[in-house]
Predict the 3D structure of the following.
Amino acid sequence: ELKVEQNPLFLSMQEGKNYTIYCNYSTTSDRLYWYRQDPGKSLESLFVLLSNGAVKQEGRLMASLDTKARLSTLHITAAVHDLSATYFCAVGNTDKLIFGTGTRLQVFP
Amino acid sequence: KAGVTQTPRYLIKTRGQQVTLSCSPISGHRSVSWYQQTPGQGLQFLFEYFSETQRNKGNFPGRFSGRQFSNSRSEMNVSTLELGDSALYLCASSLFSGLASYNEQFFGPGTRLTVL
C-alpha cells in the first residue's frame, strides 16, 4: 500500500528565510503533485512533476522530484507572508491520488 | 470559464441520517473524483466517475456511494451517518480519467459536513 509522508507537519518561519518541505513515498510512482490549501478553501494546484529529476519553479517556490529516492522537495526562497498556507504533496497510484499529511506553513514578519 | 461547483457548501446532519452532496464539474470535463478531508486522516480518495461509470474506488465502507449523470454532474451519498463522517468533502474534475500529464484535476470549494 502506497504511503506518503511529509515533514515537517508544521513550519513557522520568518519572512526572508529559506526552507524545504520533504515528501517521501513508499512505492514506485512517476507522478507527483504539489497543492496549496488556504484555510477554509479548496486545493490549488502548484506543480505536477512527471519524471525523475524534474524541477519546476514558480515565484518563490521550487519543486523537484527524485523517483529513485522516492522523494520530492518543495523549496521556499525568501518567504513572504502570502505563502502562509497548508501544502500537500500527492502521489499518483493506479490513477488515484494519495495525499501526504500536509505541512502547515506560517510565515511571520 | 466556471470552476467546479459543489452544493451545499455546509451541511449539518445527525447520526443515522443520510446525506447527498452534489458536484458540477468544469464544462467539458467528464471525470469527477471525490475526496474526504479530516484532521485525523487527512485527504483520502473516495471514488472516481467517468462517463457515468465508477472507475476507481478508495477504501471506504459501502455506506459511501456515488453516481454520475449524463451531463457529468456527480452526487455522492452517505447513508447511516456516523460522527466520524464529519469532514470536508472535495470533488475534483478533469477532462479524462486517469492521471496523465495532460489531465490535471481541478478541485471544487468543498462541502463541509458536520454530523451531530
About this structure: Chain B touches chain A through 23 residues (CB under 8 Å). The longest strand of chain B covers residues 42-50.
